Amino acid sequence: MVRIKLKSEKIPFILLTNGGGITEKEKAIELSKILDFNLSEDQVILSHSPMRSLVPTYQNSQILVLGGAGDNCRKVAESYGFNRVVIPNDIVAWDQSIWPFTKLSQEDLKLIKKIDFSKEPIKAIMMFHDSRDWGRDLQITLDVLRSKDGYVGKLENNDVANLTNIPLYFSNPDIIWSNDFPISRYAQGSFRICLDFLAEVITGHKLKYKLFGKPEPVTYLYAAEKLRKFAMKFTDENVPNRRIYAVGDNPASDIAGANRAGWTSILVRTGVFSGKVNDPINPANHVVDNILHAVEWIFSKEEGI
Amino acid sequence: MVRIKLKSEKIPFILLTNGGGITEKEKAIELSKILDFNLSEDQVILSHSPMRSLVPTYQNSQILVLGGAGDNCRKVAESYGFNRVVIPNDIVAWDQSIWPFTKLSQEDLKLIKKIDFSKEPIKAIMMFHDSRDWGRDLQITLDVLRSKDGYVGKLENNDVANLTNIPLYFSNPDIIWSNDFPISRYAQGSFRICLDFLAEVITGHKLKYKLFGKPEPVTYLYAAEKLRKFAMKFTDENVPNRRIYAVGDNPASDIAGANRAGWTSILVRTGVFSGKVNDPINPANHVVDNILHAVEWIFSKEEGI
């Protein structure tokens, strides 16, 4: 019903998630199958999509991409235009003693890039998705952050790192996420918490980093621009000032970000939020039981204009 | 030379390490080969050896043992007399959604115990060695610590954990350890730091736990008793009040523990310590270049008596 209404009335919409680890195109195909509805890759914004904005800076610099299965996130980063992407297993393959507990399988070794990290420095670290090996990734991330000019295994300033030398970016701020398990699971933000505290214990310095994903404003600016471009496919008029409605189940990410961006926020009760009235910390403009009621409410608002 | 002197003069000695993950017998065989010297398992004390003292309490209770490769640490715990030992992969095999990022291999599955953790509660958690999968182990440890009476997947007090319900034991307090890599690697103590901070962020409560290994007094008491028993094999007289000498390279563990235990501490320059004079925070009774000089110094002291 939602599907038919959206399709028939040609209401431009996009899907904005804190998930990722695959390309927007792959995600669009995955979601199209689930929804039985042809979704374009232009309609899918993943947590790391706005990190495309880093391409001009790091296009030809060696960057370390963290997270995801196999080398999926390397492929995502390359699809954005980063030309020299390495993953933690490349570093383990270069020198196993950096984290002797990670045993590379035959399959892992097939995905490896052979690089001498003592000669080719890492210029930035970008976490694209959940770490599959927290110990390895905590160790290697701090090794790079503490390194002299990104040369792995060399220490900056005689073991006193300023931790600002190598920029660090996270795609997803969430501390927890939900799946079939009855209690929420630890997300990329929990990894960041561990890194943050460990960095301080080891170096005495605070970690510095930049966040992407919801509820970061950079992500909403990126999404608004994508939505505007997508909308222009279906209309001749330029629509820069149309109202944007955001429907989400997570007050701390979906609603907080939408409110901050000046969008009209609608909170549904089908996920993280299950309260009766509204979220006390990040209240939405409107609360409904499900996505269908959200769409109906949006129609009622727009038809009245 | 050291070997010949120790052997010929029958000076009773033991080896006390913060390492582990295998049985004392396996470690003795491993070291005997390296040293080309027949070491008895009674002469080897690993970080988790004093955890034998927990056997009377948990002999027939289900305990979760963390760390080590495969199911090695389960075997170690069973060799101590714990009869119902489970490992994190048993829990992942029971419900993959608890940590979907850990993919169990065919080899992993062979080592699995099939248990319904919603029906058989975990009564204590013991970390025997370095985690091979920090994300999995942080998540599962906090799930158990926050659980109602050790039933995995159920929360104590409506998501407010007191974190004292299920006892937690660590075998090794070290934050870092040294291997071939030019900078020290993160040890079990770093995992504990992550757990500690994550627990506080998630629950608002401080983690409570008990430490074994060097420099914990419990480990030195255990070692002294083992040394006394071992010494009695070679002499008819009971030797309870003989002086104990401790040789070590790590001021924060070896020397700190020895000093606290009232042993005579000797710091060598062949490892963690490389200072000229003495360690400022944990000064040893005597500082020498290497183990040979340490043994010669001990002989000079004992011959003078």
From TrEMBL, chains A, B:
GO cellular component: mitochondrion
InterPro entries: CDP-alcohol_PTase-I, HAD-like_sf, HAD-SF_hydro_IIA, HAD-SF_hydro_IIA_CECR5, HAD_sf
Source domain of life: Eukaryota
Transmembrane segments annotated in the record for this chain: none
GO terms classed as biological process: glycerophospholipid biosynthetic process
PANTHER family: CAT EYE SYNDROME CRITICAL REGION PROTEIN 5, CDP-DIACYLGLYCEROL--GLYCEROL-3-PHOSPHATE 3-PHOSPHATIDYLTRANSFERASE-RELATED
Name of the protein: HAD-superfamily hydrolase
Organism: Rhizophagus irregularis (strain DAOM 181602 / DAOM 197198 / MUCL 43194) (Arbuscular mycorrhizal fungus)
